[in-house]
Write a structure and sequence with these properties.
This protein is of the alpha+beta class and about 400 residues long. The chain has 4 domains: about 5-15 and about 175-315, 3-Layer(aba) Sandwich (Molybdenum Cofactor Biosythetic Enzyme, Chain A); about 30-40 and about 145-175, no CATH class; about 50-135, Molybdopterin biosynthesis moea protein, domain 3 (Molybdopterin biosynthesis moeA protein, domain 3, Beta Complex); about 325-400, Beta Barrel (Beta-clip). The protein has 7 helices and 25 strands. It has helices at about 5-15, 155-165, 205-215, 230-240, 260-265, 300-315, 370-375, and strands spanning about 20-25, 35-40, 50, 55, 70-80, 90-95, 110, 115-120, 120-125, 135, 145-150, 170-175, 175-180, 215-220, 245, 270, 285, 290-295, 325-330, 335-340, 345-355, 355-360, 380, 385-390, 395-400. The strands form 7 sheets. A 6-stranded mixed sheet has the order 7-4-6-5-9-8, with no helix packed on it. A hairpin with a 2-residue loop joins strand 8 (about 115-120) and strand 9 (about 120-125). It binds adenosine monophosphate (AMP) and magnesium ion. Magnesium ion (MG) binds near residues 184, 248, 249, 255 and 297.
Length: about 400
């Protein structure tokens, strides 16, 4: 049986980038840039004041102090959004507000707190150097500079930067459409009343939420009963989306018909089982050229295999730069035993401490225990036949938000 890493590679080699579209700036939040953004203009556009105070020539403040203030003549006021029409000469100051363009002739701004108004003018109580409290044009972004590359994830700060450059629309990758259906005779449809032997279909909703979080668009189909003809029909319908996720019916029970059905439809089955726990029955195929992820039915196996195989695929389809979960090392506060030969992906709660994160299990780790995923901050990766003692380190995949890796850090 192949390893998690081998299965991930097979999956990633089997999926391609989706197309792109222009969207309004706010609609780009959480999406991935499909263009290199070159600054058409500098930020800030011109030299301006970083403070409320007075624009002056720095040399005029030479030697000024509280004990020996220098008196300068006030010749006008300039606020943000205004232009001072004139040139500042030696011996003069102009009242200036934060963000107002620096008047010609001035080379510094003195903070209001370092001055004192008087009938004759403005008393300068401190010496300032050239450039002090001045924000120079282009000091944030230079015209012609590439500020964001294709593949950058649009966080609020990115949206702000794009807006500051005057962008109103931006090219982003499509959100991959993921068809989703759960299989199982026991599953209630959302509009059905509970009945003996039947359970709610949680997988479709957990998967739908995971798809949304990974930037995709879920298309809920099914649930589908354990019958080959129905599975075949839904598989054919499902692959009209960019990818298809199914749950259940991939292990070795009498009603586990998914793999057979995929074969009968002529699918190219590329992964059939992975050396891992939970999630061993994970199956991956191409049907009519579209990726089909046949995930195990146990709710935790289903969600864990999504995080390890589907999410990276969704991210690659959107041209994301990093496709895997960020990893940290945490210290366990309890013994963690993996008696199985397969590597285990255990659900943990992370607590920040001064010495880094500690990890504790979310309770019972059975693959049907939904609470274990609901409370999890991360997946602890524990090699086969290993016991981790309290106080030792464990590798944890973070399930949370987008990491703060800058788009221009060269990684
Ligand atoms: P299967 O992989 O089809 O053998 O299902 C394994 C276990 O997961 C069984 O206990 C199922 O009842 C349960 N299960 C399968 N699909 C779902 C689902 N959509 N929602 C909740 N539980 C499910
Ligand atoms: Mg089943």
């Amino acid at each position: 049986m192949i390893s998690v890493e081998q299965a991930q590679q097979i999956v990633l080699d089997s999926v391609e980038k989706v197309g792109w579209e222009y969207v309004e700036l706010l609609d780009a939040l959480g999406r991935v840039l499909a263009e290199d953004v070159i600054a058409p203009e500098p930020i800030p556009p011109w030299d301006n004041s970083a403070m409320d105070g007075f624009a002056l020539r720095a040399e005029d403040s030479r030697g000024a102090s509280h004990e020996q203030p220098v008196m300068l003549r006030l010749i006008g006021t300039v606020g943000a959004g205004q232009i001072f029409d004139g040139v500042l000469e030696n011996g003069q100051v102009i009242r200036i507000m934060t963000g107002a363009p620096l008047p010609r002739g001035a080379d510094a701004v003195i903070r209001q707190e370092d001055t004192q108004a008087s009938d004759q003018g403005v008393l300068i109580l401190r010496q300032v150097g050239p450039g002090q409290n001045v924000r120079y044009g282009g000091e944030d972004v230079k015209a012609g500079e590439q500020v964001l590359p294709t593949g950058a994830f649009c966080r609020p700060g990115v949206i702000g930067l794009l807006a500051a450059l005057g962008k109103r629309r931006v090219a982003v990758y499509h959100r991959p459409r993921a068809g989703i259906f759960a299989t199982g005779d026991e599953l209630l449809r959302w509009d059905e009343m509970p009945a003996p032997g039947k359970i709610h279909n949680s997988n479709s909703y957990a998967l739908g939420a995971q798809v949304l979080q990974a930037g995709g668009l879920p298309v809920l189909l099914g649930p589908v009963a354990d019958r080959k003809d129905l599975l075949a029909r839904h598989l054919r319908e499902g692959v009209r989306s960019d990818l298809l996720l199914t749950s259940g019916g991939v292990s070795v029970g009498d009603f586990d018909l998914m793999a057979d059905t995929l074969h009968e439809l002529g699918a190219d089955v590329r992964v059939r089982g992975v050396h891992m726990r939970p999630g061993k029955p994970f199956t991956f195929a191409l049907l009519e050229g579209k990726p089909v992820f046949a995930l195990p039915g146990n709710p935790i196996s289903c969600m864990v295999t999504f995080e390890l195989f589907v999410r990276p695929a969704l991210r690659k389809m959107q041209d994301q730069r990093s496709v895997f979960h960020p990893e940290i090392t945490a210290t366990t506060v309890q013994p963690i035993r993996n008696k199985d030969r397969r590597p285990a992906y255990l659900r943990v709660i992370l607590t920040p401490t001064r010495a880094g994160y500690t990890a504790r299990l979310t309770g019972d780790q059975g693959s049907a225990m939904l609470h274990s995923m609901a409370y999890a901050d991360g997946l602890a990766c524990v090699p086969g036949e290993t016991e981790i003692t309290p106080g030792s380190e464990v590798r944890v995949l973070l399930l949370g938000d987008e990491p703060a890796a800058g788009p221009l850090d060269g990684s």
